[in-house]
Amino acid sequence: MRVVIAEDSVLLREGLVGLLSRFGFDVVAAVGDAAALVAAVDDTTPDLVVTDVRMPPNFTDEGLRAAVAVRAAHPGLAVVALSQYVQHSYAGELLGSGDGRAIGYLLKDRVADVAEFADVLRRVAAGGTVVDSEVVRQLMQRGRDPLAHLSTREREVLALIAEGHSNAAIARILVLTEAGVSKHISSVLAKLHLPVSDDTNRRVLAVLAYLRGQQ
């Protein structure tokens, strides 16, 4: 799997290169700013981008804006935002791009297991969506809460969906039956007025609907 890394800290950038190489990823470029990220993607056509959020010159949301740009220019490109911060601007636009497929937003301080981190990258590259629960929590504190009509249990289920858990995993974590989890998910979709279809990606549409509403 071909990967481009964008991280302004030299030590962190080289650390990511070494880590991903150890887990079998082919790091085709490692850059330190948003402009270089866009150029590297154009030059190398990677399968996955792992980018910091705050990068030169202003250290605000340059990484997110670059990620949105490369997703638009290269449909299907998988992107994982890896940051110390929850950057509200552009977060919803990034997470909602490509119908929410092949996208992730992780917080550096909450990555506790490198093997699990590598597995998350593979899941995102395969089309999955993984959003750290803390990212969801912080975004939920801003402005109007479109999840106001959800029950406490439905919010718990939605948070676990955002983390990429399967119905079986959610059932184990919350001590529910899989049928009960499916019922809660159906209720969430109905309360948020999201269309029911056979598309398995609708599991993340509830999360993305909320994130778009925060912009």
Automatic annotation (TrEMBL):
Keywords: DNA-binding, Phosphoprotein, Transcription, Transcription regulation. One of its GO terms (molecular function) is DNA binding. Pfam families: GerE, Response_reg. Transmembrane segments: none annotated. It comes from the Bacteria. The modification 4-aspartylphosphate is found at residue 52. InterPro entries: CheY-like_superfamily, RNA_pol_sigma_r3/r4-like, Sig_transdc_resp-reg_receiver, Tscrpt_reg_LuxR_C, WalR-like, WH-like_DNA-bd_sf. Residues 2-123 form the Response regulatory domain. GO terms for biological process: phosphorelay signal transduction system; regulation of DNA-templated transcription. Residues 143-213 form the HTH luxR-type domain. The keyword Nucleotidyltransferase does not apply. The keyword Lyase does not apply. This is Two component transcriptional regulator, LuxR family. It comes from Micromonospora mirobrigensis.
